[in-house]
Amino acid sequence: MAGKRRESKRQKPNILVTGTPGTGKTTMSTALAEATRLRHVNIGDLVREKNLHDGWDEELECHIINEDLVCDELEDLMEEGGNIVDYHGCDFFPERWFDCVVVLQTDNSVLYDRLSKRGYTGSKLSNNIECEIFQVLLEEAKDSYREEILLALKSDTIEDVDRNVATLTEWMRLWHPST
C-alpha cells in the first residue's frame, strides 16, 4: 500500500488516478470523492473549461493539452491538498504533489468493449488497447513517482471499483501529514 508522504503543510492528501482511457478513472475518482469528501479534478474537463490546450488533434480526436498551463492552473489547489486528480497521463505532474498514485488496469477484452461503446475506432482504439497491453501508464508512473506511493489496481468490474474505493478510503483514514 502507498506509504507516508514527504513533509508538507497539507492537511489532506492528494491522490492521482491514472490509466489508459476506459479503465474507469473517472468512475472510481467520482466514487472516491464521494466517500472521502476530497475534491475530484478531471483534467480533461479542466482543459476544456479553461482552454488549457494548444488545439485539437484530428487523428486522435482530442485536445492537445498544454502541460505547463495545466500545472500552473493546479499549483495552488495541489498545495492546499485534498484532491483526486484523474487523467490518463502522469509524467508531467510534479512528484511533490501526490501522496498516492493509482494506476487502474483493465483486461483487454473488457477495455476493448468499453472503448468501442465510446465510439473509439481505428488507430484511436488500437493505440489505447496497445497502451494497456504494454502497460505504458504503469511504466510511466513507475518512472515518475516513488515506488512506495504507487498502487496498481484491477478495474474490470463494478466490484473492483467498490473494492478500490474501500482500499483508498482506508489508506486515507491512515494517512497523516508529516510534521
Task: Name some characteristics of this structure.
46% helix, cytoplasm, AMP kinase activity, 179 residues, Adenyl_kinase_AK6, five-stranded parallel β-sheet, Rossmann fold, alpha/beta
Description:
ATP binds at residues 22, 24-27, 118. It is found in: Cytoplasm; Nucleus. With 179 residues, the chain is α/β, with parallel strands linked by helices. It has one domain (17-166): P-loop containing nucleotide triphosphate hydrolases (Rossmann fold). Helices cover 46% and strands 18% of the residues. It is built from seven helices and seven strands. It has helices spanning 25-36, 43-50, 67-80, 108-117, 122-133, 136-144, 158-174; strands at residues 14-18, 39-42, 53-57, 62-65, 83-86, 100-105, 150-154. The strands form two sheets. Strands 2-5-1-6-7 form a five-stranded parallel sheet, sandwiched between helices. Strands 3-4 form a two-stranded antiparallel ribbon. β3 and β4 form a beta hairpin. α1 (25-36) packs across α7 (158-174). The two termini are 21 Å apart. The model has no long low-confidence stretch (mean pLDDT 94).
